[in-house]
Amino acid sequence: MSKPIVAIVGRPNVGKSTLFNKLAGRRISIVEDTPGVTRDRIYAEVEWLNKKFTLVDTGGIEPESEDVILSQMRRQAEIAIETADVIVFMVDGKEGITPADYEVANMLRKTQKPVLVVVNKIDNLSLEDNKYEFYNLGIGDVISISAAQGLGIGDMLDEIVSFFNDFEGVAEDEGEIKVAIIGKPNAGKSSLLNRLVGEERAIVSDIPGTTRDSIDSFVEIGGDKFLFIDTAGIRKKSKVKEEVERYSVLRAIASIERADVCAVVIDATEGVTEQDEKIAGLAHEAGKGVVIVVNKWDLIEKETNTMNEYSERIRKDLSFISYAPIVFISAKTGQRVSRMIELIKYVADQHAMRIRTGALNEVISEAVLMKQPPIEKGKALKIYYATQASTKPPTFVLFVNYTDIVHFSYERYLENQIRQHFGLEGTPIRFIYREKKDR
């Protein structure tokens, strides 16, 4: 089940980014008093009362744009309506209602999605009555807060999550393998989806950014069921000019969250770019299985070791996902697409693997005997016991004497030992440490 998306909208300088940072628990958006300083869509995962949702801080006015403020706000509101499940409409309690507020309210009024009017900058009780003016907007409940001081935030979150009771996320059959096809624009994701589905399901063109939305396709191949999610291409932030593309990235993030395995599509004619690294990093950080798919291989002139040399470059550039298998394909001709399917299925199994506790502890004990943990802060690390806490990705809990002396290099060593014995190809591994003193 996918998580609800909550978008914070409003005209510039009402405190959207301040609220976003407060809810996200860390300073993510740049906060200034200059209108339009939030130029890129920012997102974060938020949890309140055991309910998780994706929070979006929407960009306002583009500083270099000469367009009318209201037209910019109109476009932003349109995209928020289209993308979000719940809309937080933020207004300035000190300044009062402005024409721009009415403009946005008129658009939000047309949607069937829940809207919460949040009156910000109510920094003390003397300003509390200011919120009543905003009932004139006529688009939903009104609540007052001070994002800067943290006043009223809990009540506001209570209101937000109350809307989730009616939220119907995208539910999938647990029996199928969910695959997100991700990559930068024009890498051939839509062509690949069309090849897999066997029909012109996605629009294919040479214009980057054609796919604005995520497209789901159920496919049965050799008795195995797959749900392929074709996501909009993820661009560099500096190249994201249209608000709609910012939300395309959000949809891609949501698609990664839904997936078991991410097929990271790389354009063979360009090689691994900085943006490819970031996209692969999103899948890795989300704990998803990963298959690196090098597309347009038919366009590459081959020599004896071309594929091996290309693989080495990928391993160097994407060293943080060294666990991911690589397959060279051509979505256009169908070359090795069947091999890609085999790898996706294999990685999905590895991603969901559960290891017996006894076998796990044998490997950990043997690893410690072969290589003792380094002494940190004058203390020697002892590993008493290990168990697997969960799958997707495989997550292991290690009970140790001191959690603060676990060195990254030794964790990598243990990870390599576990992979050597159990495989776990294509999936990240997570470690959790619990302190347990000698008795």
TrEMBL record:
Pfam families noted in UniProt: KH_dom-like (PF14714), MMR_HSR1 (PF01926)
GO MF term list: GTP binding; ribosome binding
Parts forming coiled coils: none
Domain of life: Bacteria
Residues binding GTP 2, per UniProt: 183-190, 230-234, 295-298
Classification via CDD domains: EngA1, EngA2
Keywords (A to Z) from UniProt: GTP-binding, Nucleotide-binding, Repeat, Ribosome biogenesis
Segments forming domain EngA-type G: 4-168, 177-352
GO biological process: ribosome biogenesis
Record: residues binding GTP 1: 10-17, 57-61, 120-123
Cited InterPro entries: G_ENGA, GTP-bd, GTPase_Der, KH_dom-like, KH_dom-like_a/b, P-loop_NTPase, Small_GTP-bd
Family classification: Belongs to the TRAFAC class TrmE-Era-EngA-EngB-Septin-like GTPase superfamily. EngA (Der) GTPase family.
Subunit structure: Associates with the 50S ribosomal subunit.
Protein's job: GTPase that plays an essential role in the late steps of ribosome biogenesis.
PANTHER family: GTPASE DER (PTHR43834)
Protein name per the record: GTPase Der
